[in-house]
Amino acid sequence: MDWDQPAGECRDLFESEDRKAWLDYRLDQAEGDLEQTLMRMNYFAPDAERVLVGYPRLVPKNTTKCLTDGPRPDGTALRRHTPGRLPLLDQVQKRLDDRMKKAAADNGADFVDLYANTGSNTACDGANRGIGGLLETSKLEPFGTPIPWYAHPNEKGRDIQAKLVAATIEAVLNH
Question: How far apart are CA 56 and CA 68, in angstroms?
Answer without folding.
Answer: 21
